[in-house]
């Protein structure tokens, strides 16, 4: 199963090593691809946040395959713990879902259109993270989900 991460903005240079590490670790379980999309903040100074989010999400929407299962990561989304994420990914694999795309929005969130396109809207935390931290946390969770599925010793939480 292919798992993609679509993210607005670049990762913080201080986090690149950690992001690459967890992406490589997650590759043991999933075919991982990460795609960066330009942030519209600098190009749209003075524009209303909803317009910036809409412009940013247009690029993502144009690249979403119709058959892909899309999961939007949004602060106000549904909570999903590590075990539930692992179970969800395992269910997708069993149902022969070919492609799952996790979307990390920009500073002003995601457009209404993108949230409506999403099959699920989940939250990583009630905290707000930078793009780089969100990407790092997501990739670590994808790695963790793989280890949970295979009963490997990485995850120490309850199952």
Detailed description of the structure:
- The protein has 159 residues and is α/β, with parallel strands linked by helices.
- It has a single domain, classed as Alpha/beta knot (3-Layer(aba) Sandwich).
- It has 5 helices and 5 strands; from the N terminus they run βαβαβαβαβα.
- Strands 2-1-4-3-5 form a 5-stranded parallel sheet.
- Strand 1 (2-8), helix 1 and strand 2 (31-37) form a beta-alpha-beta unit.
- Helix 3 (82-94) packs across helix 5.
- The longest helix has 19 residues, at 131-149.
- The mean pLDDT is 92.
Distance between the termini: 23 Å
User: How many H/I helical runs?
Assistant: 5
Mean pLDDT: 92
Number of domains: 1
Taken from the alpha-carbon principal axes, the silhouette is globular
């Amino acid at each position: 199963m292919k798992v993609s991460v679509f993210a607005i903005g670049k990762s913080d240079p201080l986090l690149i090593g950690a992001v690459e590490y967890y992406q490589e670790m997650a590759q043991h379980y999933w075919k991982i691809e990460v795609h960066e999309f330009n942030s519209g903040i600098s190009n749209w100074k003075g524009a209303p946040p909803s317009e910036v989010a809409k412009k940013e999400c247009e690029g993502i929407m144009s690249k979403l395959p119709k058959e892909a299962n899309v999961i939007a990561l949004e602060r106000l989304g549904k909570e999903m713990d590590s075990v539930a994420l692992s179970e969800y990914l395992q269910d997708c694999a069993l149902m022969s879902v070919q492609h799952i795309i996790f979307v990390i929005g920009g500073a002003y969130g995601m457009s209404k259109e993108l949230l409506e396109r999403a099959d699920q809207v989940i939250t990583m935390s009630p905290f707000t993270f930078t793009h780089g931290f969100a990407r790092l946390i997501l990739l670590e969770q994808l790695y963790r989900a793989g280890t949970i599925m295979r009963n490997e010793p990485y995850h120490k939480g309850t199952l």
